[in-house]
């Protein structure tokens, strides 16, 4: 067997072994949610009691989904939305820059297992698109209950399921 043929065969064998591992390095589901209801004053407002209740509801909904990473923008309201789930499942909230969505996408795509991303009404639709999903209508300023579930589908497509997160008054 010639050297190029042996090299090609060795390379093909190596790729066949590595391909399943590469396939595993993509999240099985990506959940995206806007922060909960926020106070209407201040540069970086905290969650209201209703927003805190919504954050706890999201934690309850996703606590058994096998989340392996939780991402949030640096604002108080997004971190406070992400924290109940992260605390419940023993993870640290990882911060991302909402002005650099591609960096978040690249990082998340190296992970395996389900992932939660908490963002804002003006950033979530773009994130959903960048992950390959269908964001639907714009998110209204008074809309806090939209929860996206993005899952890989056949042929590299992404299936988008739009859920809602309950809150208590």
TrEMBL record:
InterPro entries: His_Pase_superF_clade-1, His_PPase_superfam, PGM_Phosphatase. The keyword Signal applies. The keyword Lyase does not apply. It holds the Pfam family His_Phos_1. Keywords: Signal. SMART domains: PGAM. Residues 1-25 form the signal peptide. CDD domains: HP_PGM_like (cd07067). This is Histidine phosphatase family protein. It comes from Massilia varians.
């Amino acid at each position: 067997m010639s050297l190029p043929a042996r090299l090609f065969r060795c390379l093909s064998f190596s790729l066949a072994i590595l391909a399943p591992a590469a396939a595993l390095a993509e999240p099985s589901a990506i959940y995206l949610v806007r922060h909960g209801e926020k106070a209407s004053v201040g540069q970086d407002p905290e969650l209201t009691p209703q927003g805190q209740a919504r954050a706890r509801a999201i934690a309850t909904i996703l606590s058994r989904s096998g989340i392996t990473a939780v991402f949030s923008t640096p604002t108080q309201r997004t971190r406070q939305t992400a924290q109940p789930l992260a605390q419940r499942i023993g993870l640290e909230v990882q911060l991302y820059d909402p002005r650099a969505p591609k960096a978040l996408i690249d990082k998340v795509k190296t992970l395996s297992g389900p992932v939660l991303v908490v963002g804002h009404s003006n950033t979530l639709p773009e994130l959903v698109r960048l992950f390959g999903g269908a964001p639907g209508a714009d998110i209204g300023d008074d809309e806090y209950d939209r929860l996206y579930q993005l899952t890989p589908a056949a042929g590299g497509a992404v299936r988008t399921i739009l859920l809602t997160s309950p809150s208590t008054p």
